[in-house]
Write a structure and sequence with these properties.
Length: 342
């Protein structure tokens, strides 16, 4: 498909992988990013991987006038994939208004402008965090959404609601919210990947940083959960599999294959892995014995959270293909690459 797609936050971790997949499928891509959590180097890497230069505009989407002006100049866009947001769960509790502003205002401004473009197709980056403290896994899309655990999580719940409400009164708007489970890994070229700022809060970057010696030791939070090995279970999905789902979802709404003008899909592997299984996978692919210890449970963690992916498999026609080991290997190659450049 040779249609023009706007990717907001397209120089970030997930967005950059989606830009690559869109360009591989023949889409023309225009990226908006304010570089608050990314850099222009990522654009160069996307060009190196795909041989194609996406259009780029440095815009802060909190600026309503800039958003309006952008859409006036680009009425030939066929769809928007909206990644731009702040995503640090802990920071969101300390600075909730930063999160309510950055994760909600741009969403509203973009939705307000969609009538100016060719076709109102919209994909939203949501998260399994919208389910809150679930009682059981696998988690289906029909699982009741509980109270959000953090302001960040709440912005995703509110974001979904804003889109659903807008779809109800605008039949020309076709939107999909994609609820990601735990995205990990990097592109096979090791040219793009996740760049955590400061001490990683998430498991996999902490594992790879410990493996390379930046961190002394991984603390495994809790060993007495009601799981087979006592450590928490999550659904770790390779970022490239995740990226491909976005292309499929965008094609679905462009081709009007959707059954409702607002749809929601879980994006995970459907398979839970424990913290110890992640550590073992890392040791297997790297040949390194990881230095780890067990510590207290982390507040707010639940024993197990993994996706029921049947809806995405059947209706979207998408399934994750890459294994935990493949994801860990790509994360490790990426870790080695970024440290060799320092
Ligand atoms: P990221 O921080 O790597 O990417 C976000 C990008 O958006 C960055 O390049 C940043 O510079 C840009 N940005 C932020 N605010 C902006 C603004 N006001 N105007 C323009 N650009 C702005 O994050 P990511 O991990 O790629 O996540 C992408 C999306 O997926 C986010 O919406 C996030 O909440 C969601 N999500 C991420 C995860 C995860 O584990 N990474 C899980 C579930 C959902
Ligand atoms: C995180 C986010 C959540 C988001 C989800 C999917 C937080 C607090 N929550 O949760 O909002 O929806 O990713 O993107 O960031 N662990 C350790 N040691 C560590 C780090 C983690 O043992 O140093 C364990 C955790 O206890 C957990 C597992 O590893 O059991 C995964 O942790 P993490 O990567 O933070 O993901 P989530 O907890 O699923």
């Amino acid at each position: 498909m040779n249609k023009k797609i706007l990717v907001t936050g397209g120089l970030g971790y997930i967005g950059s992988h989606v830009v690559v997949e869109l360009q591989n499928e023949g889409f023309q891509v225009i990226v908006i990013d304010n570089l608050s959590n990314s850099s222009m180097d990522v654009l160069d890497k996307i060009i190196e991987i795909t041989g194609i230069t996406p259009l780029f505009e440095k815009i802060d989407l909190r600026d309503k006038n800039m958003v309006s002006d952008f859409f006036k100049r680009h009425s030939d866009i066929y769809g928007v994939i909206h990644f731009a947001a702040s995503k640090a769960v802990g920071e969101s509790s300390n600075n909730p208004l930063k999160y309510y502003e950055n994760n909600i205002s741009p969403l509203v401004y973009i939705l307000q402008q969609l009538e100016k473009i060719k076709d109102q197709n919209f994909i939203f980056s949501s998260s399994c965090t919208v389910y809150g403290q679930v009682d059981k896994s696998p988690i289906t899309e029909d699982t009741l959404l509980k109270k959000a655990e953090s302001p960040y999580g709440n912005t995703k719940k509110i974001g979904e609601q804003i889109i659903e409400d807008t779809c109800k009164i605008n039949n020309n708007l076709n939107a999909i919210s994609l609820r990601y489970f735990n995205p990990i890994g990097a592109h096979s070229s090791a040219k793009i990947g996740e760049l955590p700022i400061g001490i990683p809060q998430n498991l996999v970057p902490f594992v790879t940083q410990t493996g390379i010696g930046i961190r002394e030791e991984l603390s495994i939070f809790g060993k007495d959960y009601p799981t087979p090995d006592g450590t928490c279970i999550r659904d770790y999905i390779h970022v490239v599999d995740l990226a491909k789902a976005h292309v499929i979802a965008m094609k679905r709404i462009i081709l009007k294959d959707n059954s409702d003008n607002y749809e929601v899909f879980n994006l995970g592997t459907g398979k839970g892995s424990s913290v110890l299984e992640v550590v073992n996978a890392f040791e297997e692919i790297s040949g390194i014995k990881l230095n780890y210890m067990f510590s207290e449970r982390r507040a707010g963690d639940i024993a197990a959270a993994f996706a029921d992916t049947q809806k995405a498999n059947k209706i979207l026609g998408w399934k994750s293909e890459l294994s935990l080991n493949e994801a860990m290997l790509s994360a490790w190659e990426w870790e080695k690459k970024i440290n060799s450049n320092i």
